Structure formats: C-alpha cells, structure tokens
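Fig. S4 source data, part A: sequence.
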Amino acid sequence: MEQEEALGTRFKRFILMIVILAVIVFVVVVTQRLSDDALALLVGLTAGIAAMTPGLLLIGWLWRRQEVRLQERLSAQPMGAPTTPPVIVVAPPMLPDYTGRRSNTWDANALWASGPTERKFTVVGGEQ
C-alpha cells in the first residue's frame, strides 16, 4: 500500500505551482507591454543580479565560517575572573606663562622655561 502524503506537503506543492504560474503570467504580460529599451534594461538588471549572487553567497559563507571559528576559539579558552581595567589619570602639563606675568618676548624657550608656581585651589562646599 502507498502512504498518502501529508496535507501540509500537498499544500506547499500547490502554493509553489500557483507562484510559478503567476511568475510566468507576469513575465509574459510585462514583456509584451514594455518597449525594447525598457525590456533590455530589465534583462540587463536581471543578468547583473544573477551574476552577483554567487559572490554574495560566497562572502556570506566565509563570514559565517569565520564567526563559527571565533566562537569555537572563545569557548575553548578558559574563562578567568572578570577584571576591571586599570584607571589611569594623566594631569595636563602646565601651560606656558601660567604664572600670569606677561612678557613682550616671543622666544619659545622663554615661554616654556617658566618654573613651577604655587597653585591655588578652592574647595567648593567647604567652610569659608
């Protein structure tokens, strides 16, 4: 005895035949109504997409393979305790002529040669 196909399989086959028939009717109607120039443009566009598809599939396959390899490497490495990165604070250098005194010379060495000066700080929110 032969087994009957499932209803879902028959329905999928029916839908596929309807879609193929609709595409054929669409192609026939469009090709009869388009001008020669528009039809040439449509054929060129279709050929370009068809020529580009294998390259895109290859790039997608290579990209996916690279992601799988990366995941394998990450899962193979032992996971250590998470650490916080060190915080490094770098104070900016003192600007030339920070002392507030003005000099009329344009000597670059004289500008940077000003020595360390006493800095004043104001504590906000403290007693006055």
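Fig. S4 source data, part B ends here. Residues 36-76 form the longest helix (41 residues).
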